[in-house]
Design brief:
With about 210 residues, this protein is an alpha/beta fold. The protein has helices spanning about 10-25, 35-40, 40-50, 65-75, 90-95, 115-120, 130-145, 150, 155, 180-190, and strands at about 30-35, 55-60, 80, 100-105, 120-125, 170-175, 195-200, 210. The structure holds nicotinamide-adenine-dinucleotide.
Length: about 210
């Protein structure tokens, strides 16, 4: 995760609300914050939010808020900083004041962006959040499976069993989607000695890539 990207969800709100304030400088905004990383550091953001006429409620779900929970209180808010909370069209239809949804993370599958666009609600995401975490996790799983690390079960048995598994050196590895995460995974797999093949819906112009067709 790039340092400073934690500020982005708050910056996105500022951009949208500044436009509103140009029309009415006394306008006040109310924001719902559900994402734990921001909630934990709310003291850091308090000043900047207040300076921009933004008051906030922090409500932290166990994992993420369901649409039925969001429907109860979304009507009060001009903006949200959320995680994977379920902003489906039903929730958005109740969000009469909402101008901006700022997602802390990459994927916006939990937000009905078509419905949001129709209602003039801007949707932002943080494009490189967790890129490295996801890439290392994917490669970690690959090593776990090929080397049979699960078979060791060290935590339970407290024994070091020799389990050879399979080497990754010289193996053919395919990556579907050569974006931020795909590029990182390619780098790690090449370092492990794999032959890497790429598939991406967009034509990749980079030279010396081996392509995978599916
Ligand atoms: N679970 C998490 O914590 C987490 C974190 C980050 C990203 N993600 C998800 O991982 C995925 C990739 O993230 P990213 O940041 O690398 O995105 P990205 O936009 O940088 O890259 C995605 C790539 O996939 C390609 N692509 C799209 N559809 C394709 C298809 N049908 N066939 C082949 N290629 C296709 C695109 O052209 C693009 O190059 C996204 O779905 C994102 O939401 C999950």
């Amino acid at each position: 995760m790039r340092s400073g990207s934690l500020n982005l969800p708050v910056n996105f709100l500022q951009i949208i609300f500044l436009k509103e304030m140009k029309k009415n400088s006394n306008k006040k905004f109310k924001v719902l914050i559900t994402w734990q990383s921001i909630i934990k550091k709310i003291k850091v953001y308090k000043k900047i939010l207040n300076k921009n006429n933004i008051s906030y409620d922090c409500k932290q779900p166990k994992q993420c808020f369901s649409s039925s929970e969001l429907k109860k209180y979304i009507h009060q808010y001009d903006g949200v900083i959320c995680g994977d909370d379920d902003f489906n069209s039903d929730v958005l239809s109740k969000a009469k004041k909402l101008k901006v949804i700022s997602k802390w993370g990459t994927g916006i599958d939990s937000i009905d962006s078509v419905a949001a666009k129709k209602m003039g609600i801007k949707v932002f995401n943080v494009k490189d959040a967790f890129t490295d975490e996801v890439a290392t996790y994917a490669v970690g799983i690959l090593i776990y499976l090929t080397r049979g690390l699960g078979e060791l079960n060290i935590n339970k048995t407290r024994k070091w069993t020799k389990y050879t598994g399979e080497s990754l050196i010289g193996k053919n590895a395919g990556i579907v989607g050569h974006g931020r995460i795909g590029v990182k995974i390619e780098k790690y797999l090449k370092a492990l000695g794999c032959n890497v093949f790429i598939n991406d819906i967009k034509k990749i112009k980079r030279k010396k890539k081996k392509f995978l067709t599916i």
